[in-house]
Amino acid sequence: MNDQITYKKVASHEAEKGEFKKCLLLYSGGLDTSVMLKWIQEQYDCKVITLTLGIGQTVDDLKAIEEKAKKLGAIKTITYDAKDDFANHLLSKAIKANADYQGGYALSTPLGRVIISQLAVKFAKENDCQVIAHGCTGKGNDQVRFESYITTLDPAMKILAPVREWSMGREEELAYAIEHGINVDQTVDSPYSKDENMWGITSEGGEIEDPGEIPKLDKILSWCKPIAETPDKSQLLKIKFDKGIPVAIDGEKMTLSEIVKNCNAIGAKHGIGVINLIEDRLVGLKVRGIYENPAATILIAAHKKLEQLVSTRAENELKEHIDSKWAYMVYAAQWYDPALSHLQAYVDHHNQKVTGEVTVELFKGNLTVVSLTSPYTLFDHKLATFNSDMSFNQNASAGFIEIYSLAQKTAKGVYSYDN
Is there a catalytic annotation at residue 32? Predict the structure, then answer.
């Protein structure tokens, strides 16, 4: 442990020693939260209740995580399946808003933090806990998300952030885990830190941290096949939307969580949705992450193209601005800011006509929307065809051009730029 750095608590929502005897720990079973479970008991003389949520992650054995928490001293373990709530109340909004932060990140972790915070407050109150502990570092975005949301939902709730407080590095955490007999998946040779839910996996650590190094995708990827291992034949997938929400795949009706699960499996097989992103963190750092979001990539691409088909040029232009602002606010821990509610109202209204079917082709990491239909399409074959048709009055075109170009011609006559 680094004794040279002393953490000082300055925020009013930070829990102090001696103020509480029981806290709720957001527990994933990984390195940080497992070390934390032991550390809180030692440092705060505190009883710990763990909360583990199922939001569609595939790598976790939730029952095994419960047993691990009990072995490490938790007085109670809570495991809750929230995948349908997550899909229906958050991912539905993400699809309608074409969730994309800085080029392909579909906001899996930021969206997950919303529902985790909501349920953390619920279960903390039910179990008479005045403190909620999380495993975020002092350099990441998640500390902002958890603490902002938890204290917004319950201003009286206190927060404990051991990773930020103890100033242990990855190697020191591993040493602590070994010393206390805590089994963890990470090793010095496999240093990656991952966050997973049904909407995607984020991977950080190791050589990923250095943009000058090439990420070892064969060691990093958990869902998606490396391109060399993907099928040599493309696959078509037909997705049906109703008011912006996916409701069926290839004619089979499914819940949204089932659709996401299936699209993840199909997309991962074809290497879809692997994003190598240089990311601007909320706290001001420039970092790199590897993201796997196959279902999100498929569903958002299909939704966006359908949305464009049924919307006017002005609508499509405005929607891009709305979507970008929506994504930045969600990323930046502003789920409960009134401005996001206003944006969501527009997104929901805009999506009332986003109904139809979209066929996408998946091949070697590439996704192409190859066909789409909608009862609200603005495509008119009679108007758009290059064949002879009287539906479009071409006699009017020259007059339109003369008026349309008037301002440009006037400006050119007054002053000419070098272009």
Answer: yes
Q: Say what the pLDDT of residue 136 is.
A: 86
Q: What is the pLDDT of residue 1?
A: 42
Q: Give pLDDT tens digits for 373-405.
A: 999 999 886 665 556 566 777 888 898 888 999
- The region, left, alpha or beta by phi > 0 then psi within -120 to 50, assigned to residue 45 is left
Low-confidence stretches of the chain (pLDDT < 70) are: 1-5, 167, 185-190, 381-390, 419
Q: Is position 193 annotated as part of the catalytic site?
A: yes
Q: What is the pLDDT of residue 172?
A: 81
Quick: pLDDT tens for 87-108. 999 999 999 999 999 999 999 9
**CA nearest neighbour of 118 among 85, 160, 142, 141:** 85
Give the pLDDT confidence score for residue 2 in this predicted structure.
45
- Residues paired with 26 in a beta bridge: 51
Please report the pLDDT score of residue 5 as a whole number.
62
What pLDDT, on the 0 to 100 scale, is given for residue 183? 78
Among candidate residues 28, 92, 113, 374, the one labeled active-site is 113
> Could you give the CA distance from residue 83 to residue 115 in angstroms, rounded to a whole number?
10
Calculate ∠ Cα 127-43-165, nearest 5°. Answer: 95
222 is catalytic: no
Q: Are 174 and 142 in contact (CB under 8 A)?
A: no
Task: Give residue 190's pLDDT.
Answer: 66
* Bridge partner list, 275: 291
288 among known catalytic residues: no
Side-chain half-sphere CA neighbours of 151 within 13 A: 17
Instruction: Report the distance separating Cα 154 and Cα 188, nearest Å.
Output: 39
CA atoms of 177 and 174, how far apart (whole Å)? 5
Which one from 28, 193, 203, 257 is the annotated catalytic residue?
A: 193
> Catalytic residue among 28, 108, 142, 323, which?
142
